[in-house]
Amino acid sequence: MKRRGLPEPISRLIEVLSRLPGIGEKNATRLAFHILRAPTEFAESLSKAITDTKRKVTLCPICYSFTSENPCEICSDETREKTSICVVEEPIDLIAIERSGEFSGKYHVLHGVISPIEGIGPEDLKIKELLQRLSGVNVREVIIATNPSVEGEATALYLAKIIKPLGIEVSRIAHGIPVGGDIEYIDEITLGKALRDRKRM
Question: What CATH number corresponds to the domain at position 131?
Answer without folding.
Answer: 3.40.1360.10
